[in-house]
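User: Predict the full complex structure for these chains.
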Amino acid sequence: MRLWWLTLGGLALVLALIPACSPRKITPAPARKPVVYTTNYPLAYFAERIAGDAADVRFPAPPGVDPAYWEPETSVIEAYQQADLVLLNGAGYEKWVERATLAASRLVNTSAAFEADYIPLKDAVTHSHGPEGQHTHAGFAFTTWLDPHLAQRQAEAIREALMRLMPERAADFEENLRALAADLAGLDRELKRITAGGRPLLASHPVYQYLERRYGLDLVSFHWEPDQMPAPGEWRRLERLLKRRPARLMLWEAEPLEEVRNRLAGYGVVVVVFDACANRPAQGDFLTVMRENLARLERALAD
Amino acid sequence: MIRICDLDFAYPNGPFRLRLPELQLPRGTHAAFIGPSGSGKTTLLFLLGGVLTPRAGHIWAGELEITALEEASRRDFRLRRIGMVFQEFELIEYLTVRDNILLPYRLCRRLRLNGAVVRRAEALAEKVALGDKLDRFVDCLSFGERQRVGLCRALVIEPELVLADEPTAGLDPASKALVVEALLGYARSSGATLVMVTHDGDLLPHFDQVIDLGSFQEAKP
Amino acid sequence: MRDLLHLAWRYLAYHRAKTVVLVLSIALILYVPIGLRVLVRQARAELASRAASTPLILGAKGSPLELVLKVLYAGRQDPPLMRYGEAERVAKSGLAQAIPLYIRYRAQGDPIIGTTLDYFAFRGLRIAEGRQMTRLGDCVAGAEVARRRGLRPQDAVVSSAENLFDVGGAYPLKMRLTGILAPTGTPDDRVIFADLKTTWVIEGLAHGHQDLSRPEAAAGVLARKGANVIGNASVVEYNEVTDDNIASFHFHGDPAAYPITAVIALPRDEKAATLLMGRYEGAAAAHQILRPIEVIEDLLRTVLAVEKFVVAALALVGATTLATATLVFLLSLRLRRREMETLVKLGASRGRIAALVASEIAGVVGAAAVLAALFTWATAAAGANLLRRFLIE
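Assistant: Here is the predicted structure of the three-chain assembly.
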């Protein structure tokens, strides 16, 4: 008899279990300070200024690396994946992001608002596959932040992104942005004043396109590296150029080799270091680096 | 002791009629019913066992009047106190020899099936040479073996009255000897009353009392 | 009672062929409608919960059901494709978060879903072993795929060539499995996830190869037009992304024009959802935006209608079978009259005999019920698979 009751009980149990199902539980994340990652130092600087203590701003590129050509390691990409917000410079600056896996919804292209004003690169090598292949555009100049006006628009985009993340801190962000904008406007005024002469300039590298456009500079760029002696052909090119355009200043991203500086001096060309400040400076911050750039440029122009 | 008084029985639709003014079988008697076919031997046996009920008259088993019992009590009495051996064995085909022997215990709530009963059943089977066939189904047994199963079933409840309806009919001499020995042996050892219907004159010397139903009826025309 | 059950059991065991046939036929009669019911309920629960957890699906105009099943279950039917630019448009509208999905390629039969990390956050997918994918050519496997194929982190997963003769099309890409997802009990367990951009690499829209402007690649140059170098077919294309060649991977053309299957839109609120849906209304629209739950409910209504019909038919068959079973019982009782008489002669009451027969019936029906329950249990366990076979693939 017991056997039968057991069987019936088992049957009832089986039937009772059939509709049972376990709903997925969602546990809310504990509250913590939002983490903001950036892909270059100027963005980190702007974000730090605007966010204040409201967010944890991180830019993990090692010192001495040009963030534009940086390939972060896996662990760094994983850190970017964990971020609440990833600020991009845009204009094709961070190539590694194209090849990395990140949450699209947390990426903010800070220059998206002026995409139409990107400056296309003129003399880069492109390629396509087969005669009918789709042509790849050469890309854009990407040191947008060297134009303080564009830098300010990027800062505004950062403020928007932070506001979406922390709407309750909107007033703080607004105030911080105003202070930053005032500093950037100061740089802009200074640059306008210093470059008013309209004298022809040289650049060791094509990085100053946005500066050139905003201040109407007469600028010709080479592809010279600060730690290398340019090839003889490059020097001949300089000679031919100087005959047509008596430029007396050459902008360098970093201090060139002593012999390069001396040889340039032989042509009457003075080296002026104008640091784009893409990576975190050893001393000071974005603003002090820019002010030093301006001071050096002003001194050189005054000579 | 069995006592019959003014018994009158007839089947609902048939000419057969059995009338028996008086019969007494003292306790422990070994009685044989003989007589020609149709003289009412089996009918009387079934009346004694309470399988059939008479139109009139009384049957007592000891102090208990069977004919006065309710149907249920009568069945209960039969199951617990009477061992019946049927001419046609009345075995259940889907049960093994052991289960057939123990069947009364499965049918009667008041009989408790326990280890002692099972051992008794096995001992009985051993006695009638069925010890090695306890787990067989009855349809693979011989005629004589089947009758012995029926016999064991009748005796397993340790009845005080054994009613056997031609238990040796059609049996080979060896089986016959086993059956008779078992029945008489049981009756002797337990003091039970044994009533056997038989056609076999050879067996009559074993009985205390031989009742010829043919002559009995003839004697009362 | 125990005695009666013993006798009943003996009877059923002795007539085992008859018993088995009876048990089986009654079990089937019980099982088929219950099993169907369980299956339909499971289908409803599974389909509805997956659909309900997916607010909006945007795709190219076509069969709504195909699109929804593709997005929710990576079904085999391929709905028409749309452009990635539309996903960006949705995201830029600020009305909804847009999760693009490109579900076209497979790796040895398992679907590859190209998407962004947002999908993982949206579905609550968690890496159980290894780590998250970080770059082109990385992939993570759903729990079931990994278990079935015995995959471990750092194993290679090769995408299947879509068409052997399509030389210009999808090449097999050897992907690096970086992690295995924790099981979720959803279709996400049965797919392989890669970055959307990786699926474009599979498609051939993005690729890596020798730098054509360097001297060692001269053999691969077909022509130079100004600053543009045209490569010929001998250019070495990488079929695997490695740390050494990753920098050479690049996209041709505008990613906004690249294909995707659909966009899961997570609207900010109900109003944003309505606004977003409004944008894609009208017969002229090239896109359709769907609330998956509505599409699935449509499907379920059809399923339920079919179920009703089937259950009605089954009721008829069931009644017939039960009548037959009853007949078998009654006939067997007639055949057993002698047995009954024997029991009566021995002293069994009618009630006792009736109880014996009832025990036999209960035994048969009980065994049938247990069997039906087992079948039902098996159906419930295998239900998800069955559903996938019938509804999705």
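Residues 35-120+138-189 of chain A form a domain with the Rossmann fold fold (CATH 3.40.50.1980).
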